[in-house]
């Protein structure tokens, strides 16, 4: 990861800006995470909602156009298909130990209205079913992600990381190694 | 250098960009939303606008459309920068009339570089600049540094750039550019009593990079002598027609007559190699420049690592010369290949570490 400070790092600390995708909409918004990371806020079982601020709403069929803006809102965590993030940090739990032995594997996932390609890092004995059940996190971090809507395949969303809602996953295919 | 209007509702980002742009020599106007930005445009027309997308009351796209709709502001370059970083966002911004689109995940330096590229050339270079490269010790790579810096300026700034080889006899600038000159500095200076830019232009030869060369003397009979007429008029005359004039001064610099050219230069680049004899020569050169009345702020020191091993550390060099080093050009094995082939390093090995270091150094000559 680059050590150069980015412009987005100039924003208020404890605030994460990302793209949240549901079946129908794209929400470009910020979440105040304080000292936590977004993946930990999503895993917080005390609430089923994600508090958003500075929300810019687009429709998935025309995701460049901003159709509405709001100061505050709440997103039902369970209804999120995926979240595309501008950096890797917020997708790795603070509670998870860093391990250099994780192996990146090409992965293909479908959730409603999106097909997602990217890399998935796994450590230890590999078992596809374990990916969905081994950890308590509700969202799966995917690196170097490219997510496309199969109905509008000319429009794709890319980023260094995405968090995919495990409960929304329909298919998961993975290769043995990069 | 230029007036930049920055529009963002995040005050931390505004502060960060104001700092980065001011440091780069620009004047910064600030607005916290699109409406305030449009009001600023009524008062003052900036040279360039940097605008966020996600702002209250008006998105960056709508702001862009409104700026383009008014004839008075329609031609101002606009960089949209946003946390929305998808290809479709760039497409939307360009459709709205933005000149470019950058994600906020970039560093401020990248934004500043892009701004420099988009600004009209005349706002980048406040006035035309004459820069001399010299060293009292031979073999420090003065000519190769001068030639490659001239190319970097010509390519990045897309402005008229001249290089003048003031070596008395047998200068190598033409050789390094792969050019066969038909005239020389001495011929240009003695050709006419009425010494003007027009009288000197035919003596230049153009390189494919856009750099124009006034070569050193071609044979012994016509070598540049220190009492050559018009020598002291050379820098001001060339400055009137070239955005950048690079002088390869080599050793002529401190001879009685030719030394008169030094105070006319806006910048003097003292080139040294990382060895003790070069340090000694540099100390003497600094003394000489002081005696000629060249102020310290016009002098920059560049270490050119012409040797692959046993180089003195940068800290030792800085301590010995008692001043900071503006740039260090790393050893480049391809440099001699570039010289032998008449293909300057910046064109033959543009991705080499030395070429990148020279390009970075050349960009500092704009300030």
What is this structure, in a nutshell?
The complex is a heterodimer of chains A (178) and B (367). Chain A is 7% helix and 48% strand.
Structural overview:
The complex is a heterodimer of chains A (178) and B (367). Chain A is mainly beta and 178 residues long. Chain A has two helices and ten strands, in the order ββαβββββαβββ. A ten-stranded antiparallel beta sheet of chain A has the order 4-3-2-1-5-9-8-7-6-10. Chain A is globular. In chain B, the strands form two sheets. Chain B has an eight-stranded mixed beta sheet, with helices on both faces. Chain B has 367 residues and is an alpha/beta fold. The relative contact order of chain B is 0.11. In chain B, helix 2 runs parallel beside helix 3 and helix 7 crosses helix 16. Chain B has helices at 11-23, 34-43, 60-69, 87-96, 108-118, 121-124, 142-157, 173-177, 185-190, 197-200, 231-239, 276-291, 314-321, 334-341, 345-348, 353-364, and strands spanning 3-7, 27-31, 48-52, 78-82, 100-103, 129-134, 161-165, 205-206, 212-214, 244-250, 267-272, 299-304, 327-329. The interface between A and B is medium-sized, with 28 and 30 residues.
């Amino acid at each position: 990861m680059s050590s150069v400070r980015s412009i987005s790092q100039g924003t208020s600390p404890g605030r994460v800006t990302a793209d949240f995708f549901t079946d129908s909409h794209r929400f470009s918004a910020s979440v105040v995470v304080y000292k936590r990371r977004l993946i930990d806020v999503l895993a917080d079982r005390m609430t089923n909602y994600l508090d958003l601020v500075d929300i810019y709403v687009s429709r998935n069929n025309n995701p460049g156009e901003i159709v509405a803006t709001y100061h505050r809102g709440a997103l039902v965590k369970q209804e999120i298909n995926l979240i595309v993030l501008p950096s890797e940090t917020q997708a790795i739990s603070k509670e998870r130990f860093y391990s250099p032995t994780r192996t990146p594997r090409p992965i293909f996932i479908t959730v409603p209205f999106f097909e997602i390609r990217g890399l998935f890092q796994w450590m230890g004995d590999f078992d596809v079913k374990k990916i969905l059940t081994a950890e308590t996190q509700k969202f799966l971090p995917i690196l170097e992600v490219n997510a496309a809507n199969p109905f509008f395949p000319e429009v794709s969303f890319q980023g260094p990381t995405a968090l995919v809602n495990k409960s929304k996953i329909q298919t998961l295919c993975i290769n043995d190694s990069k | 250098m230029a007036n930049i209007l920055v529009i963002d509702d995040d005050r931390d980002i505004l502060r960060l960009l104001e700092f980065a742009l001011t440091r780069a020599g620009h004047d910064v106007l600030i607005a916290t939303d699109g409406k305030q930005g449009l009001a600023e445009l009524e008062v003052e027309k900036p040279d360039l606008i940097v605008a966020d997308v996600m702002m209250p009351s008006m998105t960056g796209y709508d702001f862009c459309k409104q700026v383009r709709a008014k004839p008075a502001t329609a031609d101002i370059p606009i960089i949209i920068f946003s946390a929305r970083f998808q290809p479709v966002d760039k497409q939307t911004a360009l459709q709205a009339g933005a000149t470019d689109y950058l994600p906020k995940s970039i560093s401020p330096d990248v934004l500043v570089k892009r701004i420099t590229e988009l600004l009209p050339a005349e706002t980048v270079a406040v006035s035309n600049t004459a820069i001399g490269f010299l060293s009292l010790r031979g073999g420090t790579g003065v000519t190769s540094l001068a030639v490659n810096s001239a190319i970097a300026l010509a390519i990045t700034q897309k402005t008229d750039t001249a290089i003048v080889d003031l070596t008395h006899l047998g200068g190598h600038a033409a050789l390094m550019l792969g050019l066969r000159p038909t005239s020389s500095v001495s011929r240009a200076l003695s050709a006419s009593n009425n010494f003007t830019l027009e009288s000197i232009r035919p003596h230049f030869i153009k390189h494919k990079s856009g750099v124009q060369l006034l070569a050193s003397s071609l044979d012994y009979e016509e070598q540049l002598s220190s009492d050559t007429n018009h020598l002291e008029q050379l820098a001001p005359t060339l400055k009137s027609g070239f955005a950048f004039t690079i002088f390869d001064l080599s050793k002529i610099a401190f001879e009685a007559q030719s030394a008169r050219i030094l105070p006319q230069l806006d910048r003097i680049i003292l080139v040294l190699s990382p060895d003790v004899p070069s340090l000694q020569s540099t100390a003497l050169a600094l003394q000489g420049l002081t005696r000629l009345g060249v102020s310290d702020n016009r002098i920059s020191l560049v270490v050119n690592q012409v040797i692959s091993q046993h180089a003195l550390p940068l800290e030792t060099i800085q301590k010995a010369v008692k001043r900071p080093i503006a740039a260090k050009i790393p050893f480049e094995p391809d440099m001699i290949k570039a010289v032998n082939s008449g293909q300057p390093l910046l064109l033959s090995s543009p991705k080499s570490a030395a070429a990148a270091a020279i390009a970075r150094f050349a960009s500092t000559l704009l300030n």
